[in-house]
Amino acid sequence: MEEIKIKQLSFAPDNPPLPVIVAAKVAGITLPTDTSATSPTLHLPNGLKLHGTHVILRYIGRVSSLSNFYGHNAFEASQVDEWLEYAPILSSGSEFENACTHMDKYMENRTFFVGHSFSIADIAIWSGLAGTGQRWESLRKSKKYLNLVRWFNSVSAEYSDALNEVTATYVGKKGLGKLVASKPKEQQSVNGDISEKGKAGSKPFEVDLPDVEIGKVRLRFAPEPSGYLHIGHSKAALLNQYFAQRYQGQVIVRFDDTNPSKESNEFVENLLKDIETLGIKYETVTYTSDYFPQLMEMAEKLIREGKAYVDDTPREQMQKERMDGIESKCRSNSVEENLKLWNEMVAGSVRGLQCCVRGKLDMQDPNKSLRDPVYYRCNPVPHHRIGSKYKLYPTYDFACPFVDSIEGITHALRSSEYHDRNDQYYRIQMDMGLRKVHIYEFSRLNMVYTLLSKRKLLWFVQNGKVDGWDDPRFPTVQGIVRRGLKIEALIQFILEQGASKNLNLMEWDKLWSINKRIIDPVCPRHTAVIEERRVLLTLTNGPDESFCRIIPRHKKYEGAGEKATTYTKRIWIEHADADCISVDEEITLMDWGNAIVKEIIKDQDGNITKLVGVLHLEGSVKTTKLKLTWLPETKELINLTLVEFDYLITKKKLEEGEDFLDVLNPCTKKEIAALGDSNMSNLKRGEILQLERKGYFRCDVPFIRASKPVILFAIPDEQDHTVSPTSRIAY
């Protein structure tokens, strides 16, 4: 890579080349500036000059050390050029919103403007939008350009330090122009901060990792393959990615596969799937089991050095002795005796199975994690990757500090539940003679009415209380996505929590509220009527022959497409709606017009069975109290099963020592039969829709044949919609 040496960037004071300044800042290129020129000019040390914003921007894209900054290959570089040529349209007042509409549609299924990497194309567009000042800020708040705003906020968050500094200096409320007068740093208004109120945008964390060197940070996300990724793990994964991007470093994925009794290839495969779903960009995948030979050598080395010993004390007695600070009778064994028992453990003999290896640390330390922790245990169960080669396995406490150091990890991010074991981690690394790895703590994400222990979640799976690890009642990534959560909502929710060390118990309502803001502007609208006790309304002046109209699936979003609505003389409405109608009352039939109910027919028990009325299409919808959904009486209606879920437990938070089996929710799933409009035969699995006046749903099983219902899962939102008067939606 060509060494970057720039003498100066000169430009007119009222027309700074924002994309160039942003690109240099993001790439870490020092860029002295001079505001005495009439147009952007880059002065190189050898006397050569480059003129024009996009010429200079391309130069920075080529010489920067950031990967794929000017595209991954020649084709992507050409795409970058296209967007650089397009970007100036954003400064054209009349074309600005048309350009936003075009880019919003383009970004619907994209993370970056070109390929799969951040490039100068993103910088050119970001700068063009930010450079308009208040005009773009107003549109960001209007929810008009959902995909474009999502991308803009994502870029703002990932490169917050650089972008905030540039915009604070060069962009005012009226847009790009003369240098903005500097304010003290603590007073500057930062574009797009994620505040406690949840505004999406720039740096979400008011913390820094210790002893950081830009470009040399290496982090790891290290799940144990003993379950699927849940919302708590997601926080750890996203924090690792955030800090890696912030410090231009790397993240690796490492499977801590040291307990073959709990682990399987199924969990490995699904964890990788979930990591991809979260959008985590990792350098490589490793396994603690890759280091089993070196870990055994290290354990034997510590035994020889008198820093570890083999103990055959029964487990319960050992636990009591550790609590009471009582040394094991085996602590004073000779090195020879320890090595003899170690070899028995390696062989997996009857004698070896009675033993474990413990570190010889300090049995009197007030921090009980330092009271001779266990390093190795025997386990005859075959390992999911390497079979029956080993009869003993390292504990997490022993393996983690070793592998972190060996793999070049600079900072180990751990939730604060491990706080008491931090001293143990450092002591073990010191005894091993390995490079110290910095620990950074963050608070564990806890949710109300939710169990995050994989052991407890496994109980629900094994006892048939749920349908699997992807059950919509589970807090796993696959479960909540299947429930209808968009990954963008999860990421925004977690980033808003930040890297605080303060313990907190979060409400699901906030997450589902964010989700609603994402899905509502774009999801299509459909109609359903609860099948039980539905009521037929005959419109005496209705059409003798049914007819169809093509109407939008979403009145404010063309991208949702169109649907066909059939109009007939006889229509279905819900019994609950029929109960609210009085004789001669004028009602509004949604997507049709007004009607007046002339007759209400009831059975001998007083239940409404039929209604008779007349269309009154000239009536005003503003004057009616009831706006009702309805379906035509045709054979084309789709059978639906609407499924609502509730929490698995009935208590917000379990107290320490409290058994979750005592607070199980006896009813966590409710199915309701309904009929849906004929367009719902085209729903795809995973598609999110809104049933008018019922709420949001995700299609879990699409239309196969008329005898099999389409299955829709209810998606919670902060208004807690219900699909029937007696049910409630919760998580």
Descriptive notes:
This protein has 731 residues and is of the alpha/beta class. 30% of the residues lie in helices and 20% in strands. It contains 20 helices and 33 strands. A hairpin with a 2-residue loop joins strand 5 and strand 6 (175-176). The longest helix is centred in the N-terminal third of the chain and has 16 residues, at 231-246. The chain is flat, with a radius of gyration of 32 Å. It starts with 7 loop residues before the first strand and ends in a 16-residue tail after the last strand. Residues 523-612 form the Glutamyl/glutaminyl-tRNA synthetase class Ib anti-codon binding domain. It catalyses: tRNA(Glu) + L-glutamate + ATP = L-glutamyl-tRNA(Glu) + AMP + diphosphate.
Number of alpha- plus pi-helical segments: 20
Low-pLDDT ranges: 173-204, 720-731
The total strand number stands at 33
Strand order of the largest sheet: 18-31-32-33-29-30-19
Strand content: 15-25%
- Largest beta-sheet characterization: 7 strands, mixed
Residue share in helices? 25-40%
Question: Structural class, from helix and strand content?
Answer: alpha/beta
The mean pLDDT is 89
Rg, Å, rounded: 32 Å
Anisotropy-based shape: flat
Gap between N and C termini, in Å?
Answer: 52 Å
Subcellular location: Cytoplasm
Family: Belongs to the class-I aminoacyl-tRNA synthetase family. Glutamate--tRNA ligase type 2 subfamily.
Pfam families: tRNA-synt_1c, tRNA-synt_1c_C, tRNA-synt_1c_C2
Catalytic activity: tRNA(Glu) + L-glutamate + ATP = L-glutamyl-tRNA(Glu) + AMP + diphosphate
Helices and strands in order:
Layout: E1 8-10, H1 18-27, E2 33-34, E3 41-43, E4 49-51, H2 53-63, H3 74-86, H4 96-106, H5 120-130, H6 134-142, H7 146-158, H8 160-170, E5 171-172, E6 175-176, E7 218-221, H9 231-246, E8 250-255, H10 265-277, E9 285-287, H11 292-304, E10 308-311, H12 315-324, H13 335-347, E11 356-359, E12 374-378, E13 392-394, H14 396-406, E14 411-415, H15 422-432, E15 438-442, E16 445-447, H16 454-462, H17 477-483, H18 487-497, E17 504-506, H19 508-519, E18 525-526, E19 528-530, E20 535-539, E21 547-552, E22 562-567, E23 570-573, H20 575-578, E24 586-589, E25 593-602, E26 608-615, E27 627-628, E28 631-632, E29 638-645, E30 669-676, E31 688-691, E32 695-701, E33 710-715
Parallel strand pairs: 1-2, 7-8, 8-9, 14-15, 16-17, 18-31, 20-26, 24-27, 29-33
Antiparallel strand pairs: 1-3, 3-4, 5-6, 10-11, 11-12, 12-13, 19-30, 20-23, 21-22, 23-28, 24-25, 25-26, 29-30, 31-32, 32-33
Helix pairs in contact: 1-2, 1-5, 1-8, 3-5, 4-7, 9-18, 14-15, 18-19
